[in-house]
Write a structure and sequence with these properties.
4 strands, 244 residues, four-stranded antiparallel beta sheet, disordered N terminus
Length: 244
């Protein structure tokens, strides 16, 4: 057995080839048993480490889920408080300054200009099905254009403005450009088409948002991170400033 153990050590350390014919059946059986024992020990070690990993993983998930849940609940309640707290202030602003509160957002800034809070609703462009009638009217106008270079340029511009994106939506920001072109061209068909497109615009609110900007001790404007995705940017800035 001692001779066999020595041979195994030399074989494992030097990676030398061993002629199994030099071993007796008993020695080969002992060698096979040792190899099996080593494989089983290695498999057991891997299994134990995997179980340790699973335990640590679950413990970390549960621990940090609790912390993240607290932050989420705090954000939800704070967001509700902010919008509720500014309702009367925005109404007062509209009344005092004779403005109409049909805006998608409001920005309020302290008198010293150090803190600014913007809150409102994010919206996606939405359209009634009549938008296609308006687009058809615009194309009808385009067919009346003369076949010269100037008209070709205008045709290209308008076609780009009324083209839809991959989701089949028209961009609302382009309607203003179309309207300006319609005023210049002063064509009733073109104007009617633009008016139909404008009336078909039905913005779809997606979510309420709050953006906060402030000036730091050096007067530099910064954004207050209110989401996990931007919080690391502030952390990097702080670490950089500490290093300097």
């Amino acid at each position: 057995m001692l001779k066999l153990n020595k041979l195994l050590i030399l074989n494992n350390s030097n990676m030398t080839k061993v002629d199994l014919n030099q071993f007796s059946p008993e020695e080969l059986a002992s060698l096979e048993a040792q190899m099996k024992e080593r494989k089983e020990a290695e498999a057991l070690r891997i299994q134990q480490e995997r179980e340790t990993y699973k335990s640590l993983k679950d413990e970390a998930i549960v621990t940090f889920f609790g912390k993240l849940q607290e932050i989420s609940n705090l954000l939800i309640s704070t967001k509700r408080d902010v919008f509720s707290g500014f309702d009367n202030i925005i109404d007062m602003k509209d009344e005092l300054y004779k403005t109409k509160s049909d805006r998608q957002s409001d920005t309020l800034t302290t008198e010293d200009g150090k803190i600014s809070i913007k809150l409102g609703n994010r919206v996606n462009d939405g359209w009634a099905d009549t938008v296609d009638i308006g687009i058809t009217k615009v194309k009808e106008y385009l067919r009346t254009l003369a076949k010269d270079e100037n008209s070709a340029d205008l045709l290209d511009t308008i076609m780009k403005l009324i083209s839809k994106d991959r989701k089949g939506n028209l961009k609302a920001s382009r309607v203003l450009e179309l309207e300006q072109l319609a005023v210049k061209r002063n064509d009733p068909t073109f104007t009617e088409g633009i008016n139909i497109i404008k009336e078909a615009y039905k913005p779809v609110p997606t979510c309420q948002f709050i953006d906060v900007k402030y000036r730091d001790e050096n007067g530099k404007e910064r954004s207050l991170p209110l989401s996990m995705s931007v919080a690391d940017e502030l952390l990097e800035e702080k670490e950089t400033s500490h290093e300097q």
